[in-house]
């Protein structure tokens, strides 16, 4: 995911996190080449050590989206559609909001097949991915139309920027970064457990979804072990290492049991030597 040269934006984002109650003492945010941005260990993180905490005020929930869009929507939205409307409004309309440091570090371009050129799409001809792309595009077109209809007729600025290209950008942010809201209802969750893939990152579709600044910056490593703790009183989320991470190494997340087809469609990359890779055949 291409984010451009944005080291100053990453520093501003980290300052924003810490100013609003997040703790990430042993972490460093930086660009990591073709992978966009990443999270790295400033100091060695030990197995079972808590290394970051995000307060509930920095979690983008449906309630947050509805509050920010109260003067924009004339009909209710939910799931991915609501998050997409929020993201477009924050990026293009409400450009000086509380969430700006987070919005500024999001990728502006993606490399999922939904963003392929005509020539690139020809490479998928006859494959299951070709049909998956067609189905996803059709689904997003219908969803985009529903969002357009939900925007108040007087919200001129929002209506001007609510074209399909911007909606596709927002939908890809959601598919590659959002988590299902079920995450907030557990006390301690080991997200390396592939049996609990419904809690993991990406492709949340119509489910109730949340965006988690910082956690959604961690890149994927198959079978990486990371545990999160949800404080039942404050709603904050803490990250706990499932193994040692040496100083200077990348701190990875685990997006769940996903084949390279799923990773390419939802995130725009494939994992080399993916132990969970498989090939789907449409009969």
TrEMBL record:
Ranges for domain SET: 25-256
Organism: Coemansia reversa (strain ATCC 12441 / NRRL 1564)
PANTHER family tied to this protein: PROTEIN-LYSINE N-METHYLTRANSFERASE EFM1-RELATED (PTHR13271:SF147), UNCHARACTERIZED PUTATIVE METHYLTRANSFERASE (PTHR13271)
GO terms for cellular component: nucleus
Example GO molecular function: protein-lysine N-methyltransferase activity
Name of the protein: SET domain-containing protein
Gene3D superfamilies per UniProt: set domain protein methyltransferase, domain 1
Any Pfam family hit: SET
Classification via CDD domains: SET_SpSET10-like (cd19180)
InterPro entries, sorted: Set10/Efm1_SET, SET_dom, SET_dom_sf, SETD3_SETD6_MTase
